[in-house]
Design goal:
seven-stranded antiparallel sheet; 4 helices; single chain; alpha+beta
């Protein structure tokens, strides 16, 4: 049986990167990250808020108690990652921005929070503040 992410990935690819339903009208991308321990590449569909020439994605895990694995995997990558955006598969530069560590977290998280209406609900489920990643397509 396909996982939720597998279903979203299939729909993304079948519809040139455009999703309907709960994601309708929102930009999404597929982030490919190698596992920092296994090296196995995983693909994560992520809501992507635009910020100039970059996108902001959030490690909310739907308000779960821990960061999703892709965040630590992305932090471990030295160099570009692969991203699928609409019909293109491209390399992208990235950086993970964490609250309390990076001065621009408030601004960046605020952009993503305003873009994705479920963010307020996610915040109610946990005390943690979510890391965000800035993804810049090459």
């Amino acid at each position: 049986m396909a996982s939720f992410n597998d279903t979203i990935i299939e729909q993304f690819r079948a519809n040139d990167g455009v999703l309907g339903g709960h994601f309708e009208g929102k930009e999404t991308l597929l982030l490919h990250t190698p596992g920092r321990k296994t090296g196995k590449v995983t693909i994560n569909p992520l809501v992507a808020a635009s910020d100039g020439d970059s996108f902001i994605v959030c490690g909310s895990a739907g308000g779960g108690p821990s960061d999703p694995v892709w965040v630590a995997n992305l932090e471990a990558v030295d160099g570009p990652v692969t991203v699928e955006y609409h019909t293109d598969t491209v390399k992208a530069d990235h950086r993970v921005v964490r609250p309390g560590r990076d001065d621009d977290w408030d601004r960046l998280y605020g952009i993503w929070r305003a873009y994705w209406p479920d963010a307020a609900d996610y915040e109610k489920k946990t005390d943690r503040k979510f890391p965000v990643a800035v993804i810049t397509l090459r």
